[in-house]
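Budget justification, computational time. The allocation requested in the original proposal was used primarily to generate structure tokens for proteins on the priority list. As evidence of use, we reproduce two of the resulting records. The first is shown immediately below.
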Amino acid sequence: MPLLSRAKRKVGYALNSAAMHADAKQAQFCTYLSAILLVGLILNAVFGLWWADPIAALIMVPIIAKEGIEGVQGKTCDDCGAK
């Protein structure tokens, strides 16, 4: 996902496309969520910390809620770089 996000950002700059920049930002967002999930799963599987996976999910809740609220409010990607 980080490589995909970087490639989309590069194409967005080349095309001056706000949509492609927003898509790149969402791919980057997906990378962060996947990393949080992976850490929780690894801590659970390797060290037997049963609570690590639910804690990882709870860490993701405010991040996802913020994105959802911004989407419902119709906020655009102001810092995406395209004009």
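The second record produced under the same allocation is shown here.
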Amino acid sequence: MDVSVVHHPGAVAEVAVAGRLNMVTSGALREVIQGQIAENHPRIAIDLSRVVFLDSSGLGALIAGLKSARQAGGDVRLVRPAEQAQLVLELTNMNTVLQSFDSVSDAYPAA
């Protein structure tokens, strides 16, 4: 899994994830999210457009990030989840908790 971070105005961090988001890699995503929150970027947009596989551990990392971000006064919003990731979100009904958007600017309009 590859992860990159780009900062946007309004304390928004765009976290782009590529590859497999699973038991092996989910810890790394948790660390990135926690790091962004610690750096005062609690509004996090996670780009899942290049995620080829998402399992329950990856979903757990997203939910843990959401909880941490909200405790810090922010939020986690998803950007362009790939087909398989979107299917997992829908099957688990997590698409009602983790909102998906077409772009970072749609996710955080004031950013």
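A brief technical remark on that second record: The two ends are 27 Å apart (CA to CA).
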